[in-house]
Fold:
Amino acid sequence: MNQKKNKHYQQTHQKIKDTLLEIIYEKKKVNIAQICRHAGINRTTFYQHYEDIVELIEDVQSSIFKQLIKTYDNEPEKIEFMSFRSYEIFALHVKENQHFYKLYFEMNTTFPLKDGLEEMWEAMIVPYFHDRGIYDEEVMALRFICYQAGFTITLKKWVDQNCHLKIQEVAQILTECLRM
Structure:
């Protein structure tokens, strides 16, 4: 039987991911030894699932980003890119996962972040620019970099301050301050 389809393997895989989130929720420094101790597994087991802690964080990140996309997809009406509602959904998602995002922003020191943008680029960003008569790829890329840097830094600052502003306040700031 393929090990990755094995029920025990899948349960252990999920336990490792959950343990990472528990540790960062407790605001502890994350390392493989701590994950193994907290999950009740040995290092060999960890390495059967992940090459290193970065791969684990990327796997958790992918799951969290998929949750966000699912939230947008489950909205009863189509959400317009850069609308108050789109920012409100995103801010709620960040607040609900703020411990993960704190770690995420600490690890991703270059801005703008590039993770998971390919799908969003084609589905939302290119049509947004085309609706405004902008077709030059280089112009779109540079405008988006400016937008994304402001968006990312704003959310990082909010997370660093423990998401003390209300979700609607953050959505309003993003709506008023960010344009492409």
Notes: DSSP finds nine helices and no strands in the chain. The two ends are 51 Å apart (CA to CA). The first helix runs from residue 7 to 25.
